[in-house]
Amino acid sequence: MGIGRSASGEGFDLSNPANSFVDVARRVVLQPVRFFGGLPRDQNLLNPLVFALVCVVVSAILSGLLVLLGVQQNPGFNPNPQNAIPSTFAPTSALASILFAPIGGAIGIFVAAAVQQLLVRLVVGENNQGFASTFKVASYTQVTALVNWVPVIGPLVALYGLYLSIVGIREIHGTTTGKAALVVLIPFLVVLVVAVIALAWVGYTLSNQG
């Protein structure tokens, strides 16, 4: 799977980054079926990765500024599972989070795509478009991170990312909505269960210490 420029203008175009970023962000949010359905099924990873990292870094900077200004104590939570995994690699310090965002974001996106591709093979079957296509969905749905920093509103709006992820998996792999939903929601539910167990354990430990 190579990393290179896309031969198509359907996705993010590094040769025209500013205009392409705005156009792609708009189409992902407003026309997800058409956008993901029209993405080239090539092995290009660089363009979608750069798009995703711009979203992650912008979110980290704006969220970090809110923390430094005392508006919020922690960066906002993005319930989109495509964003949840990258978030786990971010430090809790606002400044460190900003500096670490590109590295943590890249690692998280690759991990998220790998997990979802495994589920694609299990749920959709071997007749799928491969890791690169799943990686594109994981990358382009990072657009929801752009509103992740907005207190209260951000997490609510970011729930739309679940829909975008399901549409992306469905369109790019040519599967059903039900199977795509399983691919997207299984990691989310696993993370949710682990978080609940962890919180329960912390609460139990603190109560015993008291």
UniProtKB/TrEMBL annotation:
Transmembrane spans: 49-71, 92-115, 149-169, 181-204
Main location per the UniProt record: membrane
Pfam assignment, any one: Yip1
Domain Yip1: 27-197
The protein's name in its UniProt record: Yip1 domain-containing protein
GO CC field: membrane
Transmembrane helix recorded as keyword: yes
Membrane topology, as annotated: Multi-pass membrane protein
Keywords linked to the UniProt accession: Membrane, Transmembrane, Transmembrane helix
InterPro entries per UniProt: Yip1_dom
Subcellular location: Membrane
Domain of life: Bacteria
This protein's record includes keyword Membrane: yes
